[in-house]
């Protein structure tokens, strides 16, 4: 009788253990409401490999799957605005915060103040929670040292934006299109704030003959300069350091009047899975994603707890435009982009 009772107890205990284990995994998957269910759809201005690294970590931690579409920031802004009647995305990952400001004013973003944003400085996040900063990255002049020596010998590198107007650089500079690229828009918006709109437009008119191309993507000019297709790429500093660390002979100069990007994160209003988007925002504002991203993109985190990555550059040590206003850049975006489209 005692043995029978013992066996019954053992069976009951085994059943309880199985139920608890099954319950745990069902909880993790969201069956009992313990976790958000479904999939989060992300429009990423980050390079796709960096976005996927972060989203895979998020998926492992939360059980929430994802879809990601990589877009230049200008295209991402247009897409979110065009889809406002029926949003297709839940989350906007990266891109200059002035782009997010444009979407906020259009009513396209969900206000959400993550509890993990409390240590981010006020000038690097929207006070209403429409977007939250994630990283900092100044504009820089990137130069292929090997091609420079072949073409210009021991001549000094350009130290200012106006140095790039030298006729010897005809066809030797790559700069993305400010109409589609947040990178180039940051550059011209800062020049407009420092010099005035008319002087900036005059400068861009004079620079055009020296441009080899104006691709849509902000990183492309330094990738091509790194390969030796031309000598100079005007991009964000982090992209240049990344290309350099891939074995390319790149030297970077952050000139005076260089604007900088506060790379933002935002939740799309009325997206298919807002609950999952909030979970993603909370996750992105923890230390681990900041470490992962800055070590890959060589940018600087807005969170004090995330150190400057090895091989990265502290923006405070450069000549970047400390008076640059992303809010002014957002207000002037349409007017400046329309004026730039007319340049030939």
TrEMBL record:
UniProt xrefs under Gene3D superfamilies: Periplasmic binding protein-like II (3.40.190.10)
Source species, domain of life: Bacteria
Keyword Signal belongs to the record: yes
Keywords: Signal
CDD domains cross-referenced by the UniProt entry: PBP2_Fbp_like_1
Protein name: ABC transporter substrate-binding protein
Organismal lineage: Bacteria, Bacillati, Bacillota, Bacilli, Bacillales
